[in-house]
Prior knowledge:
Blueprint: E1 10-14, E2 17-18, E3 30-35, E4 40-47, E5 56-61, E6 64-67, E7 71-76, H1 83-86, E8 93-96, E9 105-108, E10 125-130, E11 135-142, E12 149-152, E13 159-161, E14 165-170, H2 175-193, H3 210-222, H4 230-233, E15 240-245, E16 248-256, E17 263-267, H5 274-290, H6 294-297, H7 304-316, E18 332-338, E19 341-347, E20 355-356, H8 362-380, E21 383-387, E22 395-396, E23 399-409, E24 414-421, E25 426-433, H9 435-438, H10 443-453, H11 456-459, H12 463-466, H13 470-475
Parallel strand pairs: 1-8
Antiparallel strand pairs: 1-9, 2-7, 3-4, 3-7, 4-5, 5-6, 10-11, 10-14, 11-12, 12-13, 15-16, 16-17, 18-19, 19-20, 21-23, 22-23, 23-24, 24-25
Helix pairs in contact: 3-5, 7-8
Amino acid sequence: MFKVDYKNLTLSFNQFHVLSDKDMPQYGEYCLVELKTGDYTAGGWHPSGNGRNTEGYFLRGTADTVDSKDVVRWHSLTRYDLTECLEDEEIDWINIGSEEEGDNNVQFEKFKSFADKKNPKDEQFCLLIMKDGTLAAGRWNKWRNQAGGAFIYSSALASHNWEEVWAWTPLSTDEFFAMELEREREKKREKNLNKNPSLDPELFKYGKDINIYYEKALEKLKEEFYWATLTMMKKKTPVWEIAPLHGKYVFGQISESYYDNSKIVTPWTEGSTSDEFIDFLCKFTRDTVEHSNPEEKFKLGTDINVYLEKAFNNVKKDYRWLDKKMLDKCWKYDIRKVDGDLEFVRKYWSDNKYSVYDVESAERFIETVEYDYQSAALQANKTVTTYEPSFGHISIHGWNLERYIFCKLKSGDYKVSVTAGDRTTGGSREFFITPYCFEAKTYEEFLDRYLEIVPDYSFGLGKKELLPDKKLQQFLGY
């Protein structure tokens, strides 16, 4: 690696280009930029109009730009390779551009390195010396839940990986970094306030154990729903906790910030006494408890095979080729006790652990299993031939219809596959065309039944488009 001691290295940028002279960078050229405030940052040049004037902006990242009207002068970062200088251990000063007398230069020093386990602060914009000897810049973005990070320098999160950077030093504080610094200061203030939080005796007259408040709410709920339990109540998430906030205890819901894994406390604000909070808990969990009646959920008993057999037989009526060997790679289901309550649980066939599958009734559970079995049946029944009706541009709720394919299956049955999308995403669905549709005596009657399964207002093609299609009529056996 390079032999220069980065800790004692100074980079001196000379011969800046002045915007008032209409001396502009090339389109996209990444530059060190001096602002009218005297601060220094960097960005890629994006001119406006025909590019022959000084109007435009320097792009630093997605929604992160510096307008040219705020810039005094610029110096290229992309035209230099410092490799030869950095390989000489005697060097501690490098001129970027021809050295001149006077004050038309600026120096950067106090470089740091990831090799010394030192990271920039979050959102800090830095000047970079890359391991290939080139210069760059970017805003530090620490990777979430893992070591390392990257310097974002352009839109769409274009970045320099930390492993590509030899040394770095901060540029001036900007609004984004200033906001991050204030956020960090606020976190420290909050931490200090919460070291010894106060407690409102009216709000916490039953103490600081949240379960006491849940249990008192449970007593009230049992008056209406005799089957109510704490487990049922706490299915309504996020659950309420007692936590310090701004130096005092509050009833709150706690979530985790995606940004930095910190805890976010959202306080209860609908009252000021313990009894008001207990009444609130009753309202908050009431719907969940009401729809957790075990007599409705397990009306067929607690043997999971009874439910699975019923779902299998229901599906078998239309999916005649279905057999139980086809279900090997489906979801696996069971009925187990979880925190004292019976629950439907499921796991994917390749997983080891079951998780609660919360449904309010036996019928809803059976419907879910039926959908699973239907998908398995269609997957097992191979397509032997297809027909794709022609259509022009069709927009469905903002999505464009891309493919609409009728498929004849090995069993002699039919399905249709529909694909739609927009400029950034898309999706496909398959629909089994049930035997009931083919009991129709005419093609028109068939379409009436078919469009109840794949309606035109949802999937693009209706009777107007499909009825005149003689090839489709023949493909479907009419």
